[in-house]
Amino acid sequence: MSLTGRYASKSPVYISRSVIVGNSVRQYATTHARPQLPSRQPVIETFSDTSKPRPYYAKHPPFRDLPKTTSGWPLLLGALVAGVSGWAVFMTFATNQEKLSSSVYRSIVRALKADLQLREVLGEAIRPQPEWWLNGDPYVSGKISQLQGNIDVSFRIRGSKGPGTVYFTSIRKEKGIPFTVLRFRVICDDGTIVNIADVAPTV
Question: CA–CA separation, 167 vs 152, rounded Å?
């Protein structure tokens, strides 16, 4: 049974439903919201012609510049230069330590300290001049090759009166014979040359 009268003008619609339970009949009222009409009609847009498709690359042009990639050659070149430099420094230090520990170098230093003429020019406490880049060790230039019979070295020395440079050259013509000293002199920084050939070291 539907409700009439003053309830019919309301927005909700009341509907009566009957349910049979046993011998009795029960009625229930349910509500359903009435759909509301739109306040205004939708605007219908019309076109006079077919639509034209938009270009695919309207926002992203196909001819834009590609991103520049960084080259790895500078880093590789820097690493190569650092590696070669480190290897050269290590080889210089290793070969210099080998020369300092040789018997030839120690004999040359003993002969320099015992030379009286050199003491008059350079003074007392004649010693090899240390180098800061070798952690205080002197630098010996040249080569010491006793097996090949060729010794040619030079290094800096210093005394109480001034410094100088030692030059020592010795060769062996044949295997089994003693070395022959060709040059053993000290050139001081003031230009004085002191020959120490009379006190040649044993090699």
Answer: 8
Q: How far apart are the two ends of the chain, measured CA to CA in Å?
A: 137
- What's the pLDDT tens digit per position in 16-40? 555 555 555 555 555 566 677 777 7
Q: Residue holding tokens 């044949």?
A: 174
* Rounded CA separation 192/117 (Å): 11
Helix (H, G, I), strand (E, B) or coil at 142: strand
pLDDT tens digit string along 140-159? Answer: 999 999 888 899 999 999 99
Q: Is 183 within 8 Å of 200 (Cβ atoms)?
A: no
As a whole number of angstroms, the distance between CA 141 and CA 139 comes to 6
Q: Which residues pair with 20 in a beta bridge?
A: 25
| DSSP structural state of residue 187 | E
Which residues have C-beta within 8 Å of that of residue 84, sequence separation ≥ 6? none
CA-nearest of 141, 140, 119, 116 to 128 is 140
